[in-house]
Design goal:
The chain is mainly α. It has helices at residues 2-21, 28-38, 40-43, 57-70, 78-85, 92-109, 125-133, 140-143, 146-149, 158-167, 174-180, 203-206, 228-242, 247-270, 294-308, 318-326, 346-357, 368-372, 392-395, 398-408, 410-413; strands spanning 114-115, 123-124, 213-214, 220-221, 282-284, 290-292, 375-380, 385-391, 417-423. The protein is 50% helix and 8% strand. It starts with a helix and ends in a 5-residue tail after the last strand.
Length: 428
């Protein structure tokens, strides 16, 4: 009887493997092309026309630029645009790949997901996802070139200033640090429920708006993933310990600050009246796009997801844990860390999973199309199980080992199961 049981079990496992790795499986490239061409209604919020966006950095860059331009939010990309002109290293291909991987995952889970609005129609996934995903790595402009921003600030007594900064970082705001180091970020992103911290978010006009983010699937987000103190502490941990500007936190601040500025610019185009007069709380711009003050709460929520996606829990060793304790990052300690789950925060979950399994950042020697053709993915919603197939050509390489470790490590900080397998060359 035991022998028959094991035979049946083996048959089930073989069938499952064949379903995932069978002759009809698609490569990740084919999967993303299918997502782009056959499900435009799900991801294409502005109903734009695009060719193959997976070809190269240029095609990916055009996709990002055109999306924000069509949404009248191009000012949000100002630093990114200038950086590209300077030929800085930008993750355009990675960003676009993540965009369509995330669209595939979300459509597989729930294609009707949306955030409820109190003043208009719901905000569909296509809207919130393009803002989050296409902006999630904008902070790399700062992180990759941290040394340039770490030059001496324009203080007369720099030595004393620097000493104070290192030992009293808890009392320094990121905004002050940005100003002292030539970074044009006017606001740090607030808690999305704290109206008093949001410029132009007038309480009289929004007093009846709720402080929570409500999804149409029942998920209610009452507070940010991490407190403003934790974000500030993590920022200085990365700054003083690693000599890096954290791209998640700085990118979140940049995104929120420029989205606020963009909102104001679009309003000013519509009226010559005093800025605080007129209907700044809700208007349609020259392109007929709807702007309302409720969106600022949404921008703050998206910024929180951008910041959180790069805040990692401490490694399980005494040295790392003590360092986290020193910087008051107790919520990121292994025994206190709360894994990111789709149930608690759908948008953040999709970003973290898609960002991790996107392969181009781990295989820089391959062009985007080639590496996507060596990977396959499948997500079983009922089992919350992510299958990733990796061609044997790269599975045993050094980069392949790092990629496998990334995927297998997902379960440590996200509520998901993973299964990574080597597979023979796929037909494409």
């Amino acid at each position: 009887m035991k022998f028959e049981f094991y035979l049946r079990l083996a048959a089930v496992l073989v069938n499952e493997r064949n379903m995932i790795l069978g002759e009809n499986r698609m490569t990740l490239y084919q999967q993303l092309r299918s997502e782009m061409e056959n499900h435009r209604g799900f991801w294409n919020y502005y109903d734009m026309k695009f060719e193959d966006v997976f070809q190269n950095e240029g095609a990916a860059s055009d996709f990002i630029y055109n999306y924000f331009q069509r949404g009248s939010k191009l000012y949000t990309l100002d630093t990114w645009i200038n950086s590209q002109n300077e030929h800085f290293e930008i993750r355009n291909v990675h960003t676009v790949n993540v965009f369509f991987i995330g669209a595939f995952l979300q459509r597989t889970i729930d294609e009707h997901i949306a955030i409820r609005s109190e003043v208009s129609l719901c905000y569909p996934f296509s809207y919130i996802w393009y803002l989050l995903c296409l902006a999630h790595d904008l902070g790399y402009v700062y992180e990759n070139y941290s040394e340039a921003y770490l030059e001496l600030p324009s203080h007369k007594d720099y030595y004393n200033y620097n000493c104070k900064a290192m030992y009293f970082w808890k009392f320094l705001t990121r905004k002050t640090w940005y100003q002292d180091h030539g970074i044009d970020i006017a606001y740090i992103h607030p808690s999305f429920g704290v109206r008093s911290k949001v410029a132009y978010y007038n309480r009289n006009a929004t007093g009846k708006l709720e402080d929570t983010i409500k999804y149409n699937n029942g998920t209610i987000i009452k507070q940010p993933r991490y407190s403003k103190e934790t974000k500030n502490n993590y920022f200085y941990y990365r700054l003083w310990k690693m000599g890096k500007l954290d791209h998640g936190i700085v990118g979140a601040d940049e995104f929120f600050s420029r989205m606020i500025a963009n909102y104001v610019k679009e309003y000013r185009k519509m009226t010559t009246e005093n800025f605080f007069g007129g209907d700044i709380y809700e208007f349609y711009n020259q392109q007929g796009l709807h702007f309302c003050i409720e969106q600022i709460k949404l921008f703050a929520y998206i910024a929180d997801c951008i910041a959180a996606h790069n805040m990692y829990k401490a490694e399980d060793n005494d040295c790392c844990k003590e360092m986290y304790k020193y910087y008051s990052l107790n919520c990121l300690l292994p025994d206190k860390f709360q894994r990111i789950s789709y149930r608690d925060n759908p948008l953040l979950f999709i970003l973290c999973v898609a960002d991790t399994i996107e392969p181009s950042k781990r295989f820089p020697d391959y062009c985007s199309k080639d590496i996507l053709n060596l990977i396959s993915i499948n997500y079983n919603v009922n089992k919350n199980l992510l299958h990733v197939g990796i061609d044997e050509e790269i599975y045993d390489s050094d980069a392949g080992h790092m990629y496998v470790a990334d995927i297998e490590g997902l379960a440590e900080w996200c509520d998901i199961r993973t299964n990574v397998m080597s597979q023979r060359a796929m037909n494409y």
